[in-house]
Amino acid sequence: MKTLLFFLGFLSLLDAEILDVKIAPFSGSNQFGSVKILDQKKLAYKEINGIGFSEISDAAYNAKSQKLYFVGDEGKLFVFDAVFGKKIETLTPMSASVLGSKAKTFSSADRDSEGLALNAKGEIFISFEGKAKIGRFDDKGSMLQSYVLPATLKDAHNYRSRNKSLEALAWHPTYGLLCASEWSLKHRGRREQVLYALNGTTWEFKAEAEPKSAVVAIEVMDDGNVLVLERSYDGAFAPLVITLKKVYLTQCSGNNKKCKTEVLLKMNSHEGWMIDNFEGLSRVSRHRYVMISDDNNNFFQQTLLVYFEINEQGDKR
Questions:
Q1: What pairs with residue 124 in β-bridges?
Q2: Sheet containing strand 56-62, strands side by side
Q3: CA separation for the pair 127, 217 (Å, rounded)
Q4: 76-84/278-285 β-pairing
Q5: Residue 109 phi/psi, 5° resolution?
Q6: Phi, psi dihedrals of residue 111, rounded to the nearest 5°
Q7: With CB atoms 3.0 to 4.6 Å apart as the test, which of 68, 71, 106, 233 could cross-link to 80 if both were Cys?
Q8: Confidence (pLDDT) at 175
């Protein structure tokens, strides 16, 4: 009987859509420098409303409506009912849609959606790789407006490849939409990363020293500075390194406005971190955020949602 109950319990876990996980190395504490991990989930949905749930590339949260939005690489928008307290208290899928215009869905060449942001009104903004663009969308996935990019971002030849363009997007209360390319533009050094406002204002900062370090998500913090999520991956035998760091928009100097950065947390798969391809980041309340991973539509990878708090100073550089 015990064996049967264990087997039935195991089968129920296989069918579960949200599972508890632990990404941090074994420790008696969930506090790692300035970051405290509050909750960790694996999202194992196969489909939501008939649309495959995979390759999640960014997240955005509307605290007033308690809606958590996810955008996927293949032009998909998912909406969850989500409540965050000491833990993730509620996480329930509400809708799923395919991005497009009111007339038709985007073609495969135009739907590589990567960045997601909400403004104070709850309006939805999405950035795209491939043909770099930013649009405003309704919660059914229809594009309502497109935006003119600064000249340097409009020219496709400036990007290191079609797959390294507008990866990250955030809304700033002062500057409006901020965006960043995954890798620096061709005319810059490999580690010379830049945050761009649509009015042409820029802020430069150094990418991390790990090989192929890429900006994969950005979010505006409570004090108006920017939280950056960087990922480094250089092949199957190299470590996957995920870095959370703060870029101080108000502490920039020199002709290029190079900004001070502060590493908050560095997660290295060769040091016991059970991480995956984290690509999305969203503020959910004061000092609290979630990050989510892209499973690359690969059986061996996972969609991980990590809820964390930033409550101390990091390592200033």
A1: 118, 137
A2: 56-62, 67-72, 76-84, 88-98
A3: 11
A4: unpaired
A5: -75, -15
A6: -115, 25
A7: 68
A8: 97
**Are the CB atoms for 166 and 114 separated by under 8 Å?**
yes
Question: Per the domain annotation, does 2 fall within a domain?
Answer: no
pLDDT above 90: percentage of residues in the chain: 80
Asked, for residue 141, whether it belongs to a domain, the answer is: yes
Place of tokens 């876990």: 13
- Residue range of the domain that includes 308: 16-316
Q: How many domains does the chain have?
A: 1
Residue 168's contacts (CB-CB under 8 Å, 6 or more residues apart) are 58, 114, 115, 127, 179, 180, 182, 215, 216, 217, 218, 228, 229
CA distance 188 to 251: 21
Residue spans of the chain under pLDDT 70: 1-15, 108-109, 256, 312-317
Confidence at residue 5, expressed as pLDDT on a 0 to 100 scale: 40
> Which CATH number does the domain housing residue 243 bear?
2.115.10
Domain annotation covers residue 252: yes
Any domain includes 11 = no
